[in-house]
Amino acid sequence: SAYYYLKKVTHSKDIGQQCTAYQHLAQLAEMKGNRIEASFYHSRHQSLQDTINAITQTEEMEKYHLLYRFQRAEKENDNLRLTNEQRQSQIYLLLLSLSVALTIITVVSFYLKKKKQEERIQAEEYGKYQREQKTNQTIGNGIGEITIPEQFFA
Fold it and tell me: What is the sign of the dihedral through the CA atoms of 137, 140, 142 and 147?
């Protein structure tokens, strides 16, 4: 009979099956008019239902706790990713600044070197001009003014 199989299910390892079995046993006992037995089965059913509810609540709390930890870890990862991107941007900016500074130093150095070279050439030309003038002056202070073309001095 159903009573026999329901009693066997009350020894199951599955608490949900036990709870359902006690509920049906309570209903059968009520139909037979056995209030004491029905009360006992209702009591067992309610006790197991409370246990199931407590387990469910605990599992849900664990789920919420895991979800919270996961969201916190995601937020921390996002913060680390943002910090990493900021540092990378700073490195790129520093490299760009160094490149610009090296370019400016190179251009200024090249300009100064060229300017010194031009000044040296100008000084040599001026020295050559002064020597020519002295030579022309020396010749001009002699017997009369004789102009000697420059090609003879080169």
Answer: positive
Distance CA 35, CA 38 (A): 5
HSE-CB of 66 using CA atoms within 13 angstroms: 6
Q: What is the pLDDT of residues 20-61, one digit of tens each?
A: 999 999 999 999 999 999 999 999 999 999 999 999 999 999
What's the burial of 53, exposed, middle or buried (CB within 10 Å: 0-12/13-18/19+)? exposed
> How far is 108 from 97, CA to CA, in rounded Å?
16
Residue owning tokens 């006790």: 47
Letter for the amino acid at 91?
I
* Contact yes or no for 53/19 (Cβ under 8 A): no
